[in-house]
Design goal:
The chain is α/β, with parallel strands linked by helices and 332 residues long. The protein folds into 2 domains: 163 residues, Alpha-Beta Complex (Quinone Oxidoreductase, Chain A, domain 1), CATH 3.90.180.10; 131 residues, Rossmann fold (3-Layer(aba) Sandwich), CATH 3.40.50. Helices cover 27% and strands 25% of the residues.
Length: 332
């Protein structure tokens, strides 16, 4: 089968299309014929070994000190079940599914556990639309619902509101009843407003320090601000949630805990649970969550997709069309 592989860390040119063996599934796994995937910020960082905030060594220890342990990237996917293991009961051959495989989605086929982070694809969504949701939407949901415990009526500032996580955070926060202020660039003001933000701040025209300091939550999805700046935007009991953080942020969180500061910084990593994928599937099916696609590339041009993500100016998701929606998968 075709797969986008990389055998060393580096620029987008290290990713090449190669023929590799199809995955061999276990009794509790599905073989999914991938129709669409995406290139996320995580894929870019793993490919380039571009770990933020002094986390290079820790990142390399996890992913491979001298060369990547995992040759095939790709977290998000949407596709059709091509084969099931003998103990699989939830899904059947021919079912359309989507989810977060963790890795391996930049290929014609992937193997995933039946109880992994996947769900039935909402019928109204194309494979490309479904593949845009699992990473960004689940991350936004878990950060807002579980880590921030966002409540109706609270005021939230979302920095990077037009990015892969931000576009979903705006919609989910609004769905939860919060008052949403989104921060983005001039070109994306209308998009963020259309997604449901009550107020949109154009950072090229407005100074964040002058927009007021009464937010219950500052959610930085883009790694733009540090706690020293965020605390000026928070109310007395406010919480700062950065999606990207480093060693300095960890020391700041420790200092806040020791001094029992009412203003806090929360450092978390979103997991991938089946229940969360099912939750965003329900939200998408009811219209509470709409996909936002920046651009689409065929698998053969995945290097260009990496380059687009690395600009850090994408709007929503960068999609990889592994096979067109109307193309039936070959027999596996």
């Amino acid at each position: 089968m075709r797969a986008a592989t990389h055998d060393r860390y580096g620029g987008s040119d290290v990713v090449t299309i190669a023929e590799i063996d199809e995955p061999v599934i276990a009794d509790n796994q599905l073989l999914v014929a991938v129709h669409a995937s995406s290139v996320t910020t995580a894929d870019w960082r793993l490919r380039a070994s571009a770990f933020p905030g002094g986390m290079w060594l820790a990142g390399r220890l996890m992913t491979g000190l001298f060369r990547p342990r995992n040759r095939v990237l790709g977290m998000e996917f949407s596709g059709v079940v091509a084969r099931t293991g003998s103990k699989v009961t939830r899904f059947a051959t021919g079912d359309a599914v989507f989810g977060n495989a963790g890795s391996g989605a930049h290929a014609d086929y992937l193997a995933i556990d039946e109880d992994g982070a996947l769900a039935a694809k909402p019928p109204a969504l194309s494979h490309a639309e479904a593949a845009s949701l699992p990473f960004g939407a689940v991350t936004a949901l878990v950060f807002l619902r579980d880590f921030a415990r966002l409540k109706s009526g609270q005021r939230i500032l979302i920095i990077g509101a037009s990015g892969g996580v931000g576009v979903h955070a705006v919609q989910i926060a609004r769905h939860m009843g919060a008052h949403v202020t989104g921060v983005t660039s001039t070109d994306n003001v209308k998009l963020v407003a259309d997604l449901g933000a009550d107020r949109v701040v154009d950072y090229r025209k407005e100074d964040l320090n002058e927009i007021g300091g009464n937010f219950d939550l500052v959610f930085d999805t883009a790694g733009i601000v540090r706690f020293a700046r965020a605390r000026r935007l928070l109310n007395a009991d406010g919480l700062f949630l950065p999606l990207e953080f480093g060693i300095g942020d960890a020391l700041t969180a420790l200092r806040c805990a020791i001094t029992r500061s009412r203003q806090r910084i929360g450092l978390h990593v979103s997991g991938d649970a089946q229940a969360d994928v099912e939750a965003i599937a329900d939200m998408a099916a009811t219209g509470a969550l709409n996909p936002v696609i920046d651009s689409r590339y065929p698998l053969s041009e995945i290097g260009r997709a990496h380059e687009r993500v690395e600009t850090r100016h994408k709007r929503g998701s960068v999609i990889i069309d592994v096979r067109p929606d109307d193309e039936a998968p070959a027999a596996a």
